[in-house]
Amino acid sequence: MTKKKSMWGQEQLETLSTMHNLAGSYWRQGFIAEGLQLEEEVLKQSSRILGEDHPDTLLSMSNLAVMYSDLGRFTEAKGLQDKVLETQSRIFPDSHPNTLTTMAGLAVTYWRLGRVAEAADLEEQVLEKRKFVLGADHPLTLETMHNLAMSYGKLGRAEDAKTMLERVVEKSVRSLGYAHRDTIKSMNVLAQAYRDIEMEAEAIALEQKLLDEDK
């Protein structure tokens, strides 16, 4: 128990936790303004009472960044994600799951800001560490591969995108099955990647496979 935490009191901390949960509930139910305002207040109070390095503060910061990103406020989202990542990199091992989650989220923000090369650089780092920590077939590893392939495609690296998506589809089919939404998503993107390099027959065959599995 930290000194700040003991001074503030368990009852007030539970209130702060309730506010955080309510903010998330508001957001999911479509009460955007209410959820955003409440999460901003949670972050303000948590930073003041617990400090900016506290896990609860970092969680609130991360959640608020997601809200900002969903609202198209990408610069504000990036500012929060940068702060979270700086703190996590300082207090956690560099392969800590929380740090990798923040890096992956920041890569998405880079993508939305049009900074695709920086997104790809982060995704490559996350992929290497997730393979080591979680394994090559873990859903989060496959998600990172999918996102990196999308970045490669945007950067004009069509062959790299195709090769990576083929690996994602192969692993997804084996571990998740054809009917899983992540497999379907990657197969659709792979079909487009085939078309980008004029492999029309492969694209058609893959789309036919999707239709056959949907019956």
Short description:
The protein has helices at residues 3-8, 10-28, 32-49, 55-70, 74-91, 97-112, 116-134, 139-154, 158-175, 181-196, 200-214.
Protein architecture, described:
Helix 5 (74-91) runs antiparallel to helix 6 (97-112). This protein has helices spanning 3-8, 10-28, 32-49, 55-70, 74-91, 97-112, 116-134, 139-154, 158-175, 181-196, 200-214. Helices cover 82% and strands 0% of the residues. With 215 residues, the protein is mainly α. The protein folds into two domains: 1-91, Tetratricopeptide repeat domain (Serine Threonine Protein Phosphatase 5, Tetratricopeptide repeat, Alpha Horseshoe); 121-215, Serine Threonine Protein Phosphatase 5, Tetratricopeptide repeat.
Q: Number of domains in the coordinates?
A: 2
The DSSP helix count reads 11
**Under the CATH scheme, which class of the largest domain?**
Mainly Alpha
Give the uncertain stretches in residue-range form: 1-8
Mean pLDDT: 91
Structural class: mainly alpha
In one word, what is the shape?
elongated
Topology (elements, then pairings):
Blueprint: H1 3-8, H2 10-28, H3 32-49, H4 55-70, H5 74-91, H6 97-112, H7 116-134, H8 139-154, H9 158-175, H10 181-196, H11 200-214
